[in-house]
Amino acid sequence: MMEDRLVIGGKTLRSRLFVGTGKFVNLELCRAAIEASGAEVVTVAVRRVDFQSAEGQALTEFLIKGGYMILPNTAGCYTAEDAVRTARLARELLGTPFIKLEVIGDPKTLFPDVVQTIEAAKILVREGFAVMAYTNDDPVTAKRLEELGCVSVMPLGAPIGSGLGIRNPYNIEIILEQAKVPIVVDAGVGTASDVSIAMELGCHAVLVNTAIAQAKDPVRMARAMRLAVEAGREAFLAGRIPKRLYASASSPLQGVIGSKHQHT
Fold it and tell me: Does residue 204 sit in helix, strand or coil?
Protein backbone atom coordinates (compact mmCIF):
# COMPACT_ATOMS: atom_id res chain seq x y z
CA MET A 1 0.00 0.00 0.00
CA MET A 2 1.16 3.51 -0.80
CA GLU A 3 1.70 5.71 2.22
CA ASP A 4 -1.02 8.28 2.73
CA ARG A 5 0.67 11.67 2.54
CA LEU A 6 -0.69 15.21 2.64
CA VAL A 7 0.81 17.74 0.23
CA ILE A 8 0.22 21.46 0.80
CA GLY A 9 2.02 24.10 -1.22
CA GLY A 10 4.64 21.56 -2.27
CA LYS A 11 5.27 20.47 1.34
CA THR A 12 4.73 16.75 2.03
CA LEU A 13 3.48 15.79 5.47
CA ARG A 14 2.80 12.54 7.30
CA SER A 15 0.60 13.91 10.07
CA ARG A 16 -2.79 15.42 9.29
CA LEU A 17 -3.09 17.04 12.70
CA PHE A 18 -1.92 20.66 12.95
CA VAL A 19 -1.59 22.19 16.42
CA GLY A 20 -1.28 25.66 17.92
CA THR A 21 0.91 27.15 20.64
CA GLY A 22 -1.47 29.60 22.30
CA LYS A 23 -3.44 29.38 25.57
CA PHE A 24 -1.13 26.88 27.30
CA VAL A 25 -0.38 27.42 30.99
CA ASN A 26 3.35 27.34 30.32
CA LEU A 27 5.93 26.53 27.67
CA GLU A 28 6.80 23.12 29.09
CA LEU A 29 3.21 21.94 28.82
CA CYS A 30 3.04 23.34 25.30
CA ARG A 31 6.14 21.39 24.28
CA ALA A 32 4.89 18.14 25.83
CA ALA A 33 1.50 18.44 24.11
CA ILE A 34 3.07 19.15 20.72
CA GLU A 35 5.30 16.10 21.05
CA ALA A 36 2.36 13.91 22.11
CA SER A 37 0.25 15.11 19.19
CA GLY A 38 2.61 13.74 16.58
CA ALA A 39 1.96 16.90 14.56
CA GLU A 40 4.49 18.25 12.09
CA VAL A 41 2.81 21.61 11.50
CA VAL A 42 2.71 24.01 14.44
CA THR A 43 1.08 27.40 14.07
CA VAL A 44 2.39 30.48 15.90
CA ALA A 45 0.63 33.84 16.27
CA VAL A 46 3.15 36.44 15.11
CA ARG A 47 1.38 39.32 16.88
CA ARG A 48 1.17 37.45 20.19
CA VAL A 49 4.61 35.91 20.49
CA ASP A 50 7.58 38.12 21.37
CA PHE A 51 10.32 36.42 19.41
CA GLN A 52 12.93 38.55 21.18
CA SER A 53 11.90 37.35 24.65
CA ALA A 54 13.46 34.33 26.35
CA GLU A 55 10.21 32.36 26.08
CA GLY A 56 9.71 33.31 22.43
CA GLN A 57 13.24 32.28 21.57
CA ALA A 58 12.89 29.04 23.52
CA LEU A 59 9.68 28.17 21.64
CA THR A 60 11.27 28.91 18.27
CA GLU A 61 14.38 26.91 19.16
CA PHE A 62 12.26 23.94 20.26
CA LEU A 63 10.29 23.95 17.01
CA ILE A 64 13.34 24.34 14.79
CA LYS A 65 15.36 21.65 16.60
CA GLY A 66 12.36 19.33 16.54
CA GLY A 67 12.06 19.67 12.79
CA TYR A 68 8.55 21.08 12.95
CA MET A 69 7.08 23.16 10.14
CA ILE A 70 6.37 26.53 11.72
CA LEU A 71 3.19 28.03 10.31
CA PRO A 72 2.98 31.69 11.32
CA ASN A 73 -0.52 33.15 11.50
CA THR A 74 -2.02 36.61 11.42
CA ALA A 75 -4.28 36.13 14.46
CA GLY A 76 -5.29 39.43 16.00
CA CYS A 77 -5.58 41.26 12.67
CA TYR A 78 -8.81 43.03 11.79
CA THR A 79 -7.91 44.53 8.41
CA ALA A 80 -6.26 43.29 5.23
CA GLU A 81 -3.56 45.90 5.72
CA ASP A 82 -2.65 44.60 9.18
CA ALA A 83 -2.69 40.99 7.98
CA VAL A 84 -0.37 41.73 5.06
CA ARG A 85 2.01 43.65 7.30
CA THR A 86 2.05 40.79 9.82
CA ALA A 87 2.65 38.19 7.09
CA ARG A 88 5.63 40.16 5.77
CA LEU A 89 7.05 40.39 9.28
CA ALA A 90 6.59 36.64 9.75
CA ARG A 91 8.46 35.87 6.55
CA GLU A 92 11.30 38.13 7.65
CA LEU A 93 11.48 36.62 11.16
CA LEU A 94 10.97 32.96 10.33
CA GLY A 95 12.11 32.70 6.72
CA THR A 96 9.05 30.80 5.54
CA PRO A 97 6.69 31.68 2.67
CA PHE A 98 3.82 29.85 4.42
CA ILE A 99 1.26 31.96 6.23
CA LYS A 100 -2.05 31.13 7.86
CA LEU A 101 -4.14 34.13 6.88
CA GLU A 102 -6.65 35.12 9.53
CA VAL A 103 -8.59 38.40 9.45
CA ILE A 104 -11.22 38.72 12.18
CA GLY A 105 -14.38 40.73 11.67
CA ASP A 106 -16.00 40.51 15.09
CA PRO A 107 -14.10 40.57 18.42
CA LYS A 108 -16.90 38.77 20.28
CA THR A 109 -17.49 35.73 18.04
CA LEU A 110 -14.12 35.91 16.24
CA PHE A 111 -15.85 35.20 12.96
CA PRO A 112 -13.67 36.02 9.94
CA ASP A 113 -14.08 39.13 7.81
CA VAL A 114 -14.48 37.55 4.38
CA VAL A 115 -14.02 40.77 2.39
CA GLN A 116 -10.78 41.68 4.17
CA THR A 117 -9.55 38.07 3.98
CA ILE A 118 -10.01 37.97 0.20
CA GLU A 119 -8.30 41.33 -0.20
CA ALA A 120 -5.30 40.23 1.88
CA ALA A 121 -5.11 36.90 0.04
CA LYS A 122 -4.85 38.69 -3.31
CA ILE A 123 -1.88 40.73 -2.12
CA LEU A 124 -0.06 37.90 -0.38
CA VAL A 125 -0.42 35.43 -3.25
CA ARG A 126 0.89 38.10 -5.60
CA GLU A 127 3.90 38.55 -3.29
CA GLY A 128 4.73 34.84 -3.38
CA PHE A 129 3.31 33.68 -0.07
CA ALA A 130 1.90 30.17 0.30
CA VAL A 131 -1.41 31.28 1.78
CA MET A 132 -3.54 29.01 3.94
CA ALA A 133 -6.71 31.00 4.41
CA TYR A 134 -8.98 30.76 7.47
CA THR A 135 -12.56 31.52 6.55
CA ASN A 136 -16.18 30.69 7.34
CA ASP A 137 -17.87 27.53 6.06
CA ASP A 138 -19.30 29.20 2.95
CA PRO A 139 -18.57 27.15 -0.21
CA VAL A 140 -18.55 30.24 -2.44
CA THR A 141 -15.92 31.99 -0.33
CA ALA A 142 -13.84 28.83 -0.16
CA LYS A 143 -13.89 28.55 -3.95
CA ARG A 144 -12.94 32.20 -4.38
CA LEU A 145 -9.93 31.80 -2.09
CA GLU A 146 -8.80 28.72 -4.01
CA GLU A 147 -9.18 30.56 -7.33
CA LEU A 148 -7.04 33.41 -5.97
CA GLY A 149 -4.18 30.94 -5.49
CA CYS A 150 -4.37 29.94 -1.83
CA VAL A 151 -2.60 26.61 -1.26
CA SER A 152 -5.19 25.57 1.32
CA VAL A 153 -8.59 26.74 2.53
CA MET A 154 -9.34 26.45 6.25
CA PRO A 155 -13.07 26.67 6.99
CA LEU A 156 -14.19 26.88 10.59
CA GLY A 157 -16.12 24.02 12.13
CA ALA A 158 -17.58 26.44 14.69
CA PRO A 159 -16.44 29.75 16.24
CA ILE A 160 -12.85 29.84 17.50
CA GLY A 161 -12.52 28.31 20.95
CA SER A 162 -16.19 27.31 21.17
CA GLY A 163 -15.66 23.55 21.23
CA LEU A 164 -19.00 23.07 19.47
CA GLY A 165 -17.64 20.71 16.82
CA ILE A 166 -18.69 20.65 13.17
CA ARG A 167 -21.90 22.70 13.14
CA ASN A 168 -22.58 22.47 9.41
CA PRO A 169 -21.17 19.27 7.92
CA TYR A 170 -23.20 19.77 4.74
CA ASN A 171 -21.37 22.97 3.85
CA ILE A 172 -18.05 21.30 4.58
CA GLU A 173 -19.02 18.47 2.24
CA ILE A 174 -19.84 20.95 -0.54
CA ILE A 175 -16.50 22.71 0.00
CA LEU A 176 -14.71 19.37 -0.23
CA GLU A 177 -16.63 18.33 -3.34
CA GLN A 178 -15.52 21.36 -5.32
CA ALA A 179 -12.02 21.83 -3.87
CA LYS A 180 -8.78 21.19 -5.71
CA VAL A 181 -6.60 22.23 -2.76
CA PRO A 182 -6.41 20.68 0.73
CA ILE A 183 -9.25 21.61 3.07
CA VAL A 184 -8.24 21.94 6.72
CA VAL A 185 -10.94 22.36 9.36
CA ASP A 186 -9.77 25.17 11.62
CA ALA A 187 -11.57 26.25 14.80
CA GLY A 188 -14.42 24.92 16.87
CA VAL A 189 -13.48 21.31 17.59
CA GLY A 190 -13.74 20.38 21.25
CA THR A 191 -12.77 16.75 21.54
CA ALA A 192 -11.55 13.71 19.64
CA SER A 193 -14.93 12.76 18.16
CA ASP A 194 -15.17 16.20 16.50
CA VAL A 195 -11.82 15.62 14.85
CA SER A 196 -12.84 12.16 13.65
CA ILE A 197 -16.02 13.56 12.12
CA ALA A 198 -14.03 16.17 10.20
CA MET A 199 -11.69 13.51 8.85
CA GLU A 200 -14.53 11.10 8.03
CA LEU A 201 -16.14 13.85 5.95
CA GLY A 202 -12.98 13.84 3.84
CA CYS A 203 -11.16 16.86 5.23
CA HIS A 204 -7.45 16.65 4.54
CA ALA A 205 -6.36 17.82 7.99
CA VAL A 206 -7.59 19.48 11.19
CA LEU A 207 -6.00 22.31 13.17
CA VAL A 208 -6.52 22.15 16.94
CA ASN A 209 -5.38 24.59 19.60
CA THR A 210 -7.86 25.50 22.35
CA ALA A 211 -9.28 21.97 22.68
CA ILE A 212 -5.80 20.74 23.56
CA ALA A 213 -4.38 23.71 25.45
CA GLN A 214 -7.38 24.15 27.75
CA ALA A 215 -8.19 20.49 28.36
CA LYS A 216 -7.77 19.25 31.93
CA ASP A 217 -4.88 17.12 30.66
CA PRO A 218 -3.51 18.75 27.49
CA VAL A 219 -0.91 16.05 26.83
CA ARG A 220 -3.45 13.25 26.99
CA MET A 221 -5.88 15.24 24.85
CA ALA A 222 -3.13 15.81 22.29
CA ARG A 223 -2.64 12.04 22.06
CA ALA A 224 -6.40 11.58 21.71
CA MET A 225 -6.51 14.08 18.86
CA ARG A 226 -3.66 12.27 17.13
CA LEU A 227 -5.50 8.96 17.29
CA ALA A 228 -8.77 10.58 16.23
CA VAL A 229 -7.21 12.05 13.10
CA GLU A 230 -5.72 8.69 12.20
CA ALA A 231 -8.97 6.79 12.86
CA GLY A 232 -11.10 9.30 10.97
CA ARG A 233 -8.79 9.27 7.97
CA GLU A 234 -8.70 5.46 7.88
CA ALA A 235 -12.50 5.31 8.08
CA PHE A 236 -12.82 7.80 5.23
CA LEU A 237 -10.41 5.83 3.04
CA ALA A 238 -12.11 2.54 3.95
CA GLY A 239 -15.53 3.82 2.88
CA ARG A 240 -18.37 3.56 5.35
CA ILE A 241 -21.54 1.56 4.73
CA PRO A 242 -24.57 3.62 3.65
CA LYS A 243 -27.03 4.71 6.31
CA ARG A 244 -30.35 2.87 6.16
CA LEU A 245 -33.66 3.22 7.95
CA TYR A 246 -33.71 -0.52 8.67
CA ALA A 247 -30.94 -3.00 9.35
CA SER A 248 -30.12 -5.75 6.86
CA ALA A 249 -28.95 -9.17 7.96
CA SER A 250 -25.24 -9.79 7.67
CA SER A 251 -26.06 -13.21 6.23
CA PRO A 252 -29.08 -14.11 4.07
CA LEU A 253 -31.83 -16.25 5.61
CA GLN A 254 -31.92 -18.43 2.48
CA GLY A 255 -31.10 -21.97 3.50
CA VAL A 256 -30.99 -21.33 7.25
CA ILE A 257 -32.28 -24.34 9.23
CA GLY A 258 -35.69 -23.61 10.66
CA SER A 259 -36.23 -20.64 8.39
CA LYS A 260 -39.34 -20.38 6.26
CA HIS A 261 -36.97 -19.49 3.44
CA GLN A 262 -35.34 -22.92 3.61
CA HIS A 263 -35.70 -24.92 0.39
CA THR A 264 -37.21 -28.45 0.65
Answer: coil
Nearest CA among 156, 180, 178, 179 for reference residue 168: 156
Determine whether 216 is an active site residue: no
CB neighbours of 184 closer than 8 A, spacing ≥ 6? 18, 132, 152, 153, 154, 203, 204, 205, 206, 207
Helices (H), the chain: 27-37, 54-65, 80-94, 114-126, 139-148, 169-178, 192-201, 210-213, 218-238
Quote the DSSP letter at residue 112: B
What would the mean pLDDT of 226-242 be, rounded to a whole number?
Answer: 94
Residue 1 pLDDT: 43
Among left, alpha and beta (phi > 0; psi -120 to 50; other), residue 171 is alpha
Catalytic residue among 23, 100, 108, 122: 100
Residue percentage of the chain with pLDDT more than 90: 73
Element holding 131 (H helix, E strand): strand 130-135
- The structure's pTM equals 0.89
| Contacts with 23 (C-beta within 8 Å, 6 or more apart), sequence order | 209, 210, 213, 214
Determine the Cα–Cα distance for residues 20 and 123; give it in Å rounded to an integer: 25
* Sequence-ordered list of residues with C-beta below 8 angstroms from that of 164, at least 6 positions apart, any chain: 157, 158, 188, 190
172 pLDDT tier (thresholds 50, 70, 90): very high
What whole-number distance in Å separates Cα of residue 6 and Cα of residue 147?
20
Burial of 131 (0-12, 13-18, 19+ CB in 10 A): buried
Q: Which of 2-11, 134-143, 177-186, 196-205 has the lowest mean pLDDT?
A: 2-11
